[in-house]
Amino acid sequence: MRHLHGHKKLNRPTDQRLALLRNLAKSLIEHGEITTSHAKAKSLARFMQKLVTLARKGDVASLRQIRKHISSRDLIKKLKDEIVPKLSDDRGGEVSVFAAGKRRGDGAEIAIIAFNLNE
Fold this sequence. Notes:
By secondary structure, this protein is α+β, with helices and mostly antiparallel strands. It has a single domain, classed as CATH 3.90.1030.10. The protein contains four helices and three strands. Strands 1-3-2 form a three-stranded antiparallel β-sheet. The model has no long low-confidence stretch (mean pLDDT about 90).
């Protein structure tokens, strides 16, 4: 079986794809919700799930693992101290992707990605 084998390439080389996901992750942490293409949103959801899991642990090693992907210490602190405590205690489902129609210019599917906060 090839369940969850590999990842979406998003029509980019590895370094550009990782840079894109890191910048999208920074924007999501900063704003709490962003609008992007559906494929990018789904890739970002998997990427953020791993970062949220590390932030839940909160130990030094986990925070250093997050630091490999998010360079801003302020955003890491916001993720650990503000966002993660508001998420539900059960594992999984911290980030949601909602369809938002089609983009006007090229008709691409767009989506809204946001944290599932318990407020």
